[in-house]
């Protein structure tokens, strides 16, 4: 876990999964279906595409709404999650997934303005 | 080409001189008249020297063309002809009997090099070749009394009109137009479609525009088609009795009162003097009086519609008295003899080029035959599409009135009191928009039962995103009797009522968003804001970086609306100079000096009571108390207010204070940041910069 937290984790959406295979990423999406075993679930991004998230331990409770998953992208294009976080829907402004998707695309369209660099740890 | 054409015949015929059995070559054939009625054919004949296009084939000879016996380039002998003279002296030749001497194949091609015979262009748009003449073979021509426009003049003008219509635009064409009308005129009687006409307009390019007009015109004349058609042969009918007499000269007297033929609204133009139209009143305004430097008067206007289009009619002063009670919305009338002039687009939302003014001789007669006259010409826009339309566009809309505010009275800038009412309309696109009604309509409107409301001619504004306002000339119909209304009703009852739809008209708070003048703080200096004569208003997103605690509160006069600082008289009384009174108390008011910053620059601003209270989150009174009692708590209020980001609406102005000029910025409104809206704005700015 420590390893992944030190590394820059670019935010991506489904279309960018293939370019980030074997890399650490941060994926925000809406939970679609949870597998009965609880070890995997599917998420949809702002564009409507789906991706699969695999967990090390099965889920303890029902998951729904928008989650932020941090993990590695496997060869098959699934996200091997090391940690996830649910965004609360009952408080604050509702999360606009489509708008988020636009922002993610922007980040990748202008890498010169949004560099993903390993911060020189001092 | 072994046949010899009778040279000089065309010239003679053109002059109205009878020629015995002339041999002429047919150059071209044009069909005129309503397609539904039996066709009339107009021929262009040549004698090798000149060509004449004002030749009409009597209908009993139509079979010659229909069976392809009479084709261009063949040579014929005109065995029996009748020459009709129109009011303006032009002549039309009606061929009652002809014999084909040589077929087109035998002839080979055009004999000689005939020049057009009319005074000017001739051809170009024969326009209405039509009519009349044919009318039952007996040349009623000119007259064609069609009532509406019987007079040859009219006919003439009608055709000419059409042409003229264009001409109007391109004076140059004037003559060609005339020319054609000449030939055309006889036909007036039955405005036939006359395809030839279509062709002709093409000739004269300046008239390009005309073709368009032309076509509708062609089309329209037939509106009253049932009647028209007949004129042609078969039924000299209506017209006939009249026709008989008219022949030549423009008998026209007829018209009005016996509208056997009605012209179409789309064809109306100022160059046509006699016409009758049959249309339904769609929108009648109230009587309005005005008084300006040139005098005063009253007017009322109404719009009428028929199958071809709509036009606005205005009546002034005396005519108001005459016609106001006669004209009722929704009824059909025959209208004739009004003045046509170019439409003043400022006062009308209709698309017609012209508008009508009634005068003393105008006639409006109720009509019983309403078949074919549409009830209302509406081009409804789905609410979701309103966003794509431009601001200030005139729109027709139909929707279910989901809710309506109560009538409220507003005082306008001109100090008039008006009633206003806002309705929320929803339609099948699921979107809601707010429509504002004014005056009587606002008061009369009954919103119970969620009626279907159709509005014609409302103005789209970008107030609050998108909203509609009923104009003086708009028509508001509640539960109208049109198919769209029924469809909406059915949809609403099934699913619409449950829809929690998104309104295009945002509520007040986010209204500002769509009209704000977004700037960055660095723009204040770089654009020299406030340096002009007027103050500059702008909005920005900024973070409060520092708020001055000292002198943030002052003691103000306790009387309502007076915020002047009071002077402590030290005897328990506080004196207000403005009210000239002493008070035993005062009220605390905030006057904050704060520093705002964004990524590029910072700016000192002044916040008065209202905005200061929003920033600090406490009322002035409470803060006043706190300052005297609990210093730490007082400080904490300021701490918490610092480093918060808000949307600021500001005014920048150059002010002189003791010989020193400085740009002072005052905060007018503080709003919480709407992140979604901000993100979208940033995204669009980025995209704009990137492209």
Topology:
The complex is a heterodimer of chains A (122) and B (691).
Chain A: H1 2-6, E1 11-12, E2 24-34, E3 40-44, E4 50-54, E5 66-73, E6 79-87, H2 97-109
Parallel strand pairs in A: 1-2, 4-6
Antiparallel strand pairs in A: 2-3, 2-5, 3-4, 5-6
Chain B: H1 9-15, E1 23-32, E2 40-46, E3 50-57, H2 62-66, E4 75-85, E5 91-102, H3 104-107, E6 115-116, H4 152-169, H5 174-187, H6 195-203, H7 209-219, H8 225-229, H9 239-244, E7 276-284, E8 288-292, E9 295-306, E10 309-316, H10 317-323, E11 332-342, E12 354-366, E13 394-404, E14 408-411, E15 417-426, E16 431-438, H11 439-444, E17 452-461, E18 467-478, H12 483-494, E19 502-503, H13 508-515, H14 521-526, E20 536-547, E21 553-556, E22 567-568, E23 574-576, E24 581-583, E25 587-590, E26 592-597, E27 602-607, H15 609-616, H16 620-629, H17 631-641, E28 645-657, E29 660-671, H18 675-690
Parallel strand pairs in B: 3-5, 3-6, 10-12, 16-18, 16-19, 27-29
Antiparallel strand pairs in B: 1-2, 1-4, 2-3, 4-5, 7-9, 7-11, 8-9, 9-10, 11-12, 13-15, 13-17, 14-15, 15-16, 17-18, 20-26, 20-28, 21-25, 22-23, 23-24, 26-27, 28-29
Helix pairs in contact in B: 4-5, 4-7, 6-7
């Amino acid at each position: 876990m420590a390893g992944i937290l030190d590394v820059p984790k670019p935010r991506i959406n489904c279309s960018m999964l293939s370019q980030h295979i074997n890399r650490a990423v941060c994926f925000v999406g809406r939970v679609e279906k949870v597998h009965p075993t609880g070890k995997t679930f599917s998420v949809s991004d702002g564009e409507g595409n789906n991706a699969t998230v695999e967990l090390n331990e099965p889920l303890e409770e029902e998951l729904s709404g928008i989650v932020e998953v941090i993990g590695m992208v496997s060869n098959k294009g699934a996200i091997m999650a090391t940690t996830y976080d649910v965004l609360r829907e009952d408080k604050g402004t509702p999360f606009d997934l489509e708008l988020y998707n636009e922002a993610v695309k922007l980040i990748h369209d202008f890498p010169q303005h949004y560099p993903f660099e390993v911060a020189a740890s001092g | 080409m072994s046949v010899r054409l009778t040279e000089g015949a065309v010239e003679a015929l053109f002059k109205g001189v009878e020629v015995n059995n002339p041999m002429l070559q047919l150059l071209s054939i044009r069909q005129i008249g309503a397609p539904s009625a039996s066709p009339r054919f107009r021929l262009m004949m040549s004698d090798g020297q000149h060509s004449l296009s004002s030749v009409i084939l009597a209908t009993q000879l139509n079979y010659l063309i229909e069976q392809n016996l009479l084709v261009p380039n063949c040579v014929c002998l005109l065995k029996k002809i009748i020459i009709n003279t129109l009011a303006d002296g032009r002549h039309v030749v009606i061929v009652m009997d002809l014999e084909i001497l040589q077929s087109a194949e035998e002839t080979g091609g055009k004999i000689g090099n005939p020049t057009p015979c009319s005074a000017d262009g001739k051809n170009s748009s024969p326009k209405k070749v039509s009519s009349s003449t044919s009318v039952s073979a007996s040349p009623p021509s000119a007259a064609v009394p069609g009532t509406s426009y019987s007079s040859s003049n009219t006919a003439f003008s009608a055709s000419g009109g059409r042409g003229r219509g264009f001409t109007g635009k391109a004076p140059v064409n004037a003559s060609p137009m005339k020319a054609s009308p000449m030939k055309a005129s006889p036909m007036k009687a039955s405005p036939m479609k006359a395809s030839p006409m279509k062709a002709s307009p093409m000739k004269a390019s300046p008239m390009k525009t005309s073709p368009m007009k032309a076509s509708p015109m062609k089309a329209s004349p037939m509106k009253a088609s049932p009647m028209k058609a007949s004129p042609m042969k078969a039924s000299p009918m209506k017209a006939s009795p009249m026709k008989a007499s008219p022949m030549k000269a423009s008998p026209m007297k007829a018209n009005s009162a016996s509208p056997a033929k009605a012209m179409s609204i789309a064809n109306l133009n100022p160059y046509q003097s006699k016409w009758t139209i049959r249309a339904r009143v769609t929108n009648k305004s109230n009587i309005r009086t005005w008084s300006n430097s040139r005098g005063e008067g009253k007017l009322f206007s109404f719009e009428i519609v028929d199958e071809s289009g709509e036009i606005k009619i205005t009546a002034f002063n005396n005519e108001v008295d005459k016609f106001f009670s006669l004209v009722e919305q929704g009824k059909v009338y025959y209208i004739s003899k009004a003045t046509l002039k170019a439409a003043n687009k400022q006062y009308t939302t209709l698309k017609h080029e012209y508008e009508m003014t009634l005068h003393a001789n105008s006639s409006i007669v109720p009509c019983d035959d309403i078949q074919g006259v549409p009830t209302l010409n509406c081009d409804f826009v789905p609410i979701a599409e309103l966003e794509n339309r431009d601001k200030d566009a005139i729109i027709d809309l139909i929707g279910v009135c989901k809710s309506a505010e109560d009538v409220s009275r507003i005082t306008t800038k001109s100090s008039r009191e008006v009633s206003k009412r806002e309705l929320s309309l929803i339609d099948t696109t699921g979107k809601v928009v707010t429509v504002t009604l004014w005056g009587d309509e606002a008061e009369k409107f009954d919103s119970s039962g969620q009626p279907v409301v159709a509005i014609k001619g409302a103005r789209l504004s970008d107030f609050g995103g998108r909203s509609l306002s009923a104009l003086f000339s708009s028509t508001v119909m509640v539960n109208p009797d049109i198919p769209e209304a029924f469809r909406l009703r059915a949809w609403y009852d099934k699913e619409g009522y449950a829809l929690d739809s998104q309104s295009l008209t945002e509520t007040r708070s986010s209204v500002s968003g769509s009209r704000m003048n977004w700037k960055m703080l660095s723009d204040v200096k770089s654009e020299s804001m406030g340096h002009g004569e007027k103050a500059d208003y702008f909005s920005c997103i900024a973070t409060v970086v520092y708020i001055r605690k000292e002198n943030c509160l002052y003691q103000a006069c306790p009387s309502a609306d007076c915020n002047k600082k009071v002077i402590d008289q030290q005897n328990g009384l506080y004196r207000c100079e403005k009210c000239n009174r002493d008070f035993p108390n005062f009220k605390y008011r905030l006057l904050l000096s704060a520093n705002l910053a964004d990524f590029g620059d910072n700016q000192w601003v002044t916040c008065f009571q209202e905005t200061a209270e929003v920033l600090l989150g406490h009322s002035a009174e409470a803060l006043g108390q706190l300052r005297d009692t609990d210093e730490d708590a007082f400080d904490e209020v300021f701490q918490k207010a610092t480093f918060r980001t808000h949307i600021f609406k500001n005014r920048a102005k150059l002010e002189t204070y003791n010989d020193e000029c400085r740009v002072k910025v005052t905060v007018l409104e503080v709003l919480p940041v709407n992140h979604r809206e901000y993100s979208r704005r940033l995204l669009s700015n980025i995209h704009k910069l990137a492209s």
